[in-house]
């Protein structure tokens, strides 16, 4: 059915967007749709389970919380796995003769993001509930909820892209910080030094390290020092006190406590194991 043909059948909708379907669907075993083309816009939200959802020539694998969007006349398939459930919310809508600038809104994205536990998930459920109720009030609620969903997902995508771009631009600075720690492990290093080296704030440096290194910069520095101490113990005849100085500790007792805490044994025990194993 073409969009213009639906308007006369939807007397409660006095202005766009015109919603022609909003339901939650539990796919029965073996159910699939292949190479379908809709004449309207579609939002497909995975409530639970897994589904392959190729749109045109782009394959998508969707899981709980994923929200897909595609405009009219895009060939797509819905292919749940035989051994997993697939429960989805489908919203089908159009804007009549009015153009909808979806490219500007979603930047040519089909997979809008994962919204499990996000307010968008609740908005989708509310839309389905109102759609099943008769009357102008419920229809206006549906339209309002749909526009909020489109706005929320567009804003989420914009913020996500901005964060990704910013992080991508700062990855060389993360490498710069790691190199600084590797090259200057034998001296005192403070977080302020890393701020000066990179031009990043303390909180951003900590966040980058947690995400991409799995530890704080100072934990990373400690790991470097332990590795260097082991190298010196193996490759030289230096005393424990001399090794401590070489890896940035002026006090041998502080070094010894740190080393044993992190490795479970003293550096002397480490050397003994090398000699007698």
From TrEMBL:
**Residue ranges of the HTH araC/xylS-type domain?**
175-273
Has UniProt tagged this entry with the keyword DNA-binding? yes
Entry annotated with the keyword Transcription: yes
Question: Which Gene3D superfamilies would you find in this protein's record?
Answer: Homeodomain-like (1.10.10.60), Jelly Rolls (2.60.120.10)
Q: Which InterPro entries match?
A: AraC-bd, AraC_XylS_family_regulators, Homeodomain-like_sf, HTH-like, HTH_AraC, HTH_AraC-typ_CS, RmlC-like_jellyroll
* Key words of the record: Activator, Cytoplasm, DNA-binding, Transcription, Transcription regulation
This entry's Gene Ontology molecular function terms read: DNA-binding transcription factor activity; sequence-specific DNA binding
The record, for SMART domains, names: HTH_ARAC
In terms of superkingdom, the source organism counts as: Bacteria
Q: Which PANTHER family match?
A: HTH-TYPE TRANSCRIPTIONAL ACTIVATOR RHAS, HTH-TYPE TRANSCRIPTIONAL ACTIVATOR RHAS-RELATED
Supply the name of the protein. Answer: AraC family transcriptional regulator
């Amino acid at each position: 059915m073409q969009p213009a043909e639906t308007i006369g059948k939807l007397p409660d909708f006095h202005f766009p967007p015109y919603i022609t379907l909003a339901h939650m669907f539990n796919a029965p075993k073996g159910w699939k749709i292949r190479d379908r083309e809709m004449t309207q816009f579609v939002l497909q939200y995975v409530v639970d389970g897994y589904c392959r959802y190729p749109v045109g020539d782009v394959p998508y694998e969707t899981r709980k919380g994923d929200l897909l969007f595609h405009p009219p006349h895009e060939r797509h398939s819905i292919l749940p796995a035989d051994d997993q459930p697939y429960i989805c919310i489908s919203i089908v809508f159009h804007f009549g003769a009015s153009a909808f600038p979806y490219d500007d809104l979603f930047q040519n994205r089909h997979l809008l993001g994962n919204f499990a536990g996000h307010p968008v998930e609740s908005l989708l459920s509310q839309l389905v509930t109102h759609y099943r109720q008769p009357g102008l009030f419920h229809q206006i609620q549906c339209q309002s909820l749909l526009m909020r969903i489109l706005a929320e997902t567009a804003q989420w995508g914009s913020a996500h892209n901005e964060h990704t771009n910013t992080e991508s631009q700062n990855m060389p600075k993360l490498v710069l910080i790691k190199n600084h720690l590797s090259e200057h492990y034998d001296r005192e290093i403070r977080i302020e030094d890393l701020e000066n080296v990179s031009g990043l704030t303390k909180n951003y440096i900590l966040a980058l390290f947690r995400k991409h290194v799995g530890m704080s910069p100072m934990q990373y520095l400690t790991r470097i020092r332990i590795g260097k101490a082991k190298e010196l113990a193996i490759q030289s005849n230096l005393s424990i006190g001399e090794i401590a100085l070489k890896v940035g500790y002026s006090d041998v007792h502080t070094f010894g406590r740190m080393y044993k805490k992190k490795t479970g044994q003293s550096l002397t025990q480490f050397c003994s194991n090398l000699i007698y194993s």
